[in-house]
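Standup notes, structure subgroup. Blocker cleared on the guanosine-5'-triphosphate input:
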Amino acid sequence: MCTVCGCSERKPDGRYREVKGGLHFGMGHAGVHVAGMSQSRLVAVERDILSKNDGYAATNRHFFSEKGILALNLVSSPGSGKTTLLTRTITELAGKIPVSVIEGDQQTSLDADRIRATGAPAIQINTGKGCHLDAQMVGDALEKMAPERGSLMLIENVGNLVCPASFDLGEACKIAILSVTEGEDKPLKYPDMFAAASIMILNKIDLLPHLDFDVEKCSEYARRVNPGIEIMMLSAKTGEGFGRWLSWIGENLPK
Ligand SMILES: Nc1nc2c(ncn2[C@@H]2O[C@H](COP(=O)(O)OP(=O)(O)OP(=O)(O)O)[C@@H](O)[C@H]2O)c(=O)[nH]1
Ligand SMILES: [Mg+2]
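Run returned:
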């Protein structure tokens, strides 16, 4: 019997494994540790949460498919440039593709205000203590927004490189944005996010001359966790590299 939480699992399987230089709490079958909760209980709770989420995600995906909408889920750490990327994307696509935005943040409507300033419709979701958007929240926002047929729906997730990886919102794909000021090691440190993403956008490349960020190494790390990931380099500030991003959107809009 575990002396800490009273579960029937024993250390190291139930709580941690000793690894070189430390303790790894993610090697039990739940892949995560919560104080006082057994691995099997954790697996049951996660399955319950994610299966309910998947039901809502399927409804959202059906909605997008029926309306010929390309929905993208933008995920990253705080401040990597998601909203800047969105505002430039909206401006560049003005008069060509209608765009609407769902913004996710714990608090404030600052990002939705930035989007609305471009003229595009935006709805802000505040998650309170929550660290990610879930599919039910997005479904509620869709009911209020009624996005146009054949449009682009950009969903900016809460700035967090961990939790949004696990939640399907019904999007066509997740796009991970990593700015070059964050360091090239992030795909290895937060592998779930880069494994879940179809594209990694390396943003803020205008700053590369001032940094020691290793683009080759970062790309190799991203491909190590996700061999199929597409990598785009751009600057949401200057617009450098934006052509490829805009072409990708055009190619992936439902015909
Ligand atoms: N130099 C440079 N700065 C950028 C670029 N993109 C964004 N920034 C700056 O980075 C800061 C954060 O940008 P945001 O677009 O607010 O980042 P975000 O990911 O939406 O942030 P959260 O919503 O808080 O997670 C701002 O000061 C932007 O002006 C870029 O390509 N180059
Ligand atoms: Mg933002």
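Discussed briefly. Residues 69-252 form a domain with the Rossmann fold fold (CATH 3.40.50.300).
Next: hand off to the docking folks.
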